[in-house]
């Protein structure tokens, strides 16, 4: 509504005030006087007429101006309210301070437009100027605050980047869910569960498998449940000491113990625990696992008992063997002694033949008992090892066979990549004696006999000794499984007894070594001895 018409005198005053004359009068006062006059008359309106009378406003022009300012004010008033509502509901929105400055800036801009509309009726130009000053100050602060946060704003990820990250996180979450499922199922199958104790809050956390081991329902509250009470003595006190040591000194534990489940079953479990520290080195948690080992432990105990019983039986058999060997050897020796006292010349031809056969059986029995006794001694009483030279022992053994080597024109080659070995001196002599003796005995008459003795280290850095010959060889398909058996012979020779390789294998295995053979009929044999130093 337009103000009431003014008199001619007021119209002239308004013209003077709105024109140059009023401005010239005010400019004559000092700055201090102007400042004091401004704030003392902040709400006074006598110096100006309403805007309707300051200029030549038509109704259309004036109301267009007024309604536009009111519309701008209404929008500027609504926008801050919406922003404040958003800030109130979304506490995670960054840059709250800048948002509040924008709220004040927009609100003040709206008030300036409201004052422009009000001045058409109430010419409070001083108040309008003050509001504009405040708006300008807030605007400057808003610009400065916005400038300060621009680097942070530029560092924020775009919507497309956030969407890409969300997609990646979904993929990772799906994989983690799948891995967690597999881990959970693996834990259930293997009966291994995890647990955790927060040392600050004393809160406990169990995996489902731990509930399964204790035979408790998953919804069971474990806050006041003491699993240590389910541990049977004497393991209970041992576990308490381990937990106490972990809290005081940070030490870990790994032990086997028995527990009683909620269903009253007694089972073996394996408990482990480890202390977790924060960045400051403070103990914050104890993590651990619980594994159901009842099936394995039961089998282990049964196996241990069976092994103990077997050991007792073996010892009894050893005692029986010693007694039997001693008694039979005594009888066999007596038979040999009595046979030596008999004068065969006094016997007739038939009885003399029978006596010779009986004497041969007696001598054979005595020799067999001696061989078995020697093998038993090797297994029961292994000799301590010494650092010995392959070359020195070989030369000593070759000296024993010197005449046989010359008569049979046997050539011996020696290659020692490894010079020394930790092995019983007497055993190595015996082994070389048997191998060289066999190589000479079973040489190929159609070839010049060659024996190659070689030492070296294999891929596992163990010392190996090879004895290679070009003799008759052995059919391993036919005799391979019994080649190291007692009294096993593979060639038609009267002087073959089948004891040498048996004793050789026994001596090597008594020191933790191995012997292998490679052979083909007519192409010779290779015996490989791997020492366990």
From TrEMBL:
It catalyses: ATP + protein L-histidine = ADP + protein N-phospho-L-histidine. It comes from Dyadobacter flavalbus. Gene3D superfamilies: Histidine kinase-like ATPase, C-terminal domain, PAS domain. Signal peptide: none annotated. PANTHER family: PAC DOMAIN-CONTAINING PROTEIN, PHYTOCHROME-LIKE PROTEIN CPH1. GO terms for molecular function: protein histidine kinase activity. SMART domains: HATPase_c (SM00387), PAC (SM00086). Residues 323-533 form the Histidine kinase domain. This is histidine kinase. Residues 253-305 form the PAC domain.
